[in-house]
Amino acid sequence: ELAPTFRVHRATVARWIQNARERLVHETREGLRERLAVGEATVDSILRQLEGDIEISVSRLLAE
């Protein structure tokens, strides 16, 4: 749905979304590590616990 708005191919929008997702995960991991002063294993555990909830929330936002 975004491709025509930006006048690009849908594959381009898919790449944009994938890059945004990767950046979000990276920055979230770094932010958690710094704020909570914990190691990678703890961040991994926290994100695994939240993963399902995050996917559902993002899906709801995109559906609106």
Task: Describe it.
By secondary structure, this protein is an all-alpha fold. The protein is built from 3 helices and no strands. It starts with a helix and ends with a helix.
Describe the secondary structure blueprint for this structure.
Blueprint: H1 2-6, H2 10-36, H3 40-63
Question: Nutshell version of this structure?
Answer:
The chain is an all-alpha fold and 64 residues long. It has helices at residues 2-6, 10-36, 40-63.
Describe the sheet with the most strands. none
Number of helices: 3
User: Could you list the spans in which at least 5 consecutive residues all have pLDDT below 50?
Assistant: none
Total beta-strand segments: 0
Distance between the termini: 13 Å
Features:
88% helix, 0% strand, mainly alpha, elongated, 64 residues
